[in-house]
From TrEMBL:
Pfam families per UniProt: PmbA_TldD_1st (PF01523), PmbA_TldD_2nd (PF19290), PmbA_TldD_3rd (PF19289)
Source organism superkingdom: Bacteria
Domain Metalloprotease TldD/E N-terminal: 24-88
Residue ranges occupied by any Metalloprotease TldD/E central domain in the UniProt entry: 119-222
Name this polypeptide is given: TldD/PmbA family protein
Metalloprotease TldD/E C-terminal domain ranges (all copies): 229-445
Amino acid sequence: MTSANEDRVAALVEAAARAGADAADAVYYRSESTQVQVRLGLLEDVQRSDGEDIGLRVFVGQRSASVSSSSLTDDALSALVERAVAMAREAPEDPYAGLAPAELLLQGDAPEIDGDDGADPAPDRLRALALAAEDAARGITGVVNSEGAGASAGRTAMALATSTGFLRSFSSSGYGISASVIAGEGSGMQRDYGYHSSRHFADLEAPEEIGRRAGERTVARLNPGKLPSGPMPVVFDPRVGSSLIGHMAGAVTGAAIARKTSFLLGKLGQQVFAKGITIRDDPHRLRGLRSRAFDGEGLPTHAIDLIEDGVLTTWLLDSASSRQLDLQPTGHATRGGSGAPGAGTSNLYLEKGALSVAELIGDIKLGLFVTELIGQGVNMVTGDYSRGASGFAIRDGQLAEPVAEVTAAGCLPEMFLHLTAADDLVFRRAHDVPTIRIDGMTVAGA
């Protein structure tokens, strides 16, 4: 199958050259997945999807065009090539357009990332996992209803070819279990969830643990109050704190810097986080959710500290943005089945600190522990940050009563400089952080 995928994209690139393209690349994706949903102990839905897509990008001088198709017949691909070359000839010139430099392409053996276990669990196995998760969640005292539970399994295959000689492919598997339940009555109802995803089926957390966590989190949210408004420390649970390094990653992409639309513009080589903070992108983590041996343009990937001892060390650059900024691409190109590549991270994480969670919050007289964020109140140009939040009050160094309908606000550059990390880092997501404390935020409550 892998060889056949490579043959497809290689043939498409060769056809583009025969049609008059000066350069070209082609990318193929195939995805298949099975999803099972249950609710209140009964099977609610089973879905199976299987699709493929191929994309061609061609260059005629400094003009380029991208076209994709979900039909892979000979006639469809011939039409795809003709359309792409014709569009490129009419496109405006772009001085930064082009493939990745040939001398930088991945050579030799690709690093092993162990991203595909070859498993294919049957729908009845997925159903049993979903039921076990929901049963555990509903078994928590105080849970009164269920929004359902689900289990999924899937596989993605990708192949990339360029007219500069790159031809590689990979496949990755993925599995997930989730549960969401309700506690309370009437206007006092609360909901929460638990989930886990992994590349290998054997690495999935036990469904009973996922369900138990969903139920306990839901019951803990009952009868929320409000905090008084004012400046105070805000502590982020890891499942929501990961969004903070996501904002950082978005602000250091080459496109944002080239367009001057980033709150970190001009900060390269400067202190942007508190000293001692390291944020690493690791594309070679075995079984990582976003591990990859090569990027979307065929360049080798490597682990890199985006933030080292609080200092911003690099931008995330695909070839186009690297030309705009007169820098080298960094192996962070990402792409789908159509369009030009962008830039993004793989397995991004903030390294753990030295304090336990108890020590992190131990000196807080009054603060907010955030377990859920609501809304998209982040200005990526200025860094202004304002999001709805719920979680728990921190009183005299201890987690106290649940709180809801509060707003946590600040400015990301200042927030980063006042960030402290706990020691409870666990790799569970594409973006991972330990519990994070940020002093000096403004909370709007009662």
